Amino acid sequence: MSEKIRNILFKYDVLLNEILGVAYGTKPSVLYALEDRTVEEFKQIFPNLYFLNGGYGSNPVDKQNHTPNYAIAKDETTAKDLIEAQNINDHISLGRLLGYPECCIRNHYNRSFSTGSKEMIIRSCENSKNFSYLLNNIFNFHSRLNDSKEHFDKFSIYGKQNAYVPRLISQLELISHIPCSYDCEDSIAIGEEARSLMQEYFPEETLRIEATLRKKILFFNMFEWIVFDGDVISKKELRYKDVVWPISLIDKNFILNLKKGNIIKLLEENVQVFNNDKHVYTFEHPLRDKGIILDFK
Ligand SMILES: [Zn+2]
Prior knowledge:
alpha+beta; 7-stranded antiparallel sheet; 3-stranded antiparallel sheet; 12 helices; binds zinc ion
């Protein structure tokens, strides 16, 4: 059965850790845009789960493709509650039904969601003493896009330019919510559960996902960040061996110049790149977003 679950799930662009979480009862429900025939296949491998067609959501891509939103849950009531919460934009109930911790919901989801995930991530960083890699979902932000077509277009470019490892780009996370801090214990527990389920069904992919989530990141905003193989020296300085996958939509010239150096320093007005003591490049902040270093371990 394990092989069958693996083969069917891997054909579709769903978050493997989430759907396994619902199947094993560690997550109450999920919401995906799915075609009816996909749902029929899922029902074969998960006969105990309940699938509810909730009609079209506000996502411009799904509307265009005529793909309905399906709530997947252990029972009908939970699935109905999820569709209802989605229809009335009740972010608190949505967070609870998707299994997000109460501390994270209180911290983020009761504020205006439209402030955008950049501000939410910066707030979480300010609350963090440590950065657990289990909570790194910077590389997979599908659930954090608002409904603008511009966001979906950018996300689609991001997917295409990183698609040389088939399917992996859409699986780079073990939790789906923005945690209240990157050392939130309740979120770490969710990440641990997701990792052990993933290890059981997708062991090779899980090793790659974990290695990628442990990388250091210079984050500017949802679409612009850089991933490094390296060590964080301080909140404002990072020493690196290389710039690595995945690649965001940040200025390609910046990436090329980073490859000439091995140290970045964050200043108030810009980012400076050095090769040991020698200055090699200055990068102006994109859209005046100041960079922030995320030291995932
Ligand atoms: Zn939390």
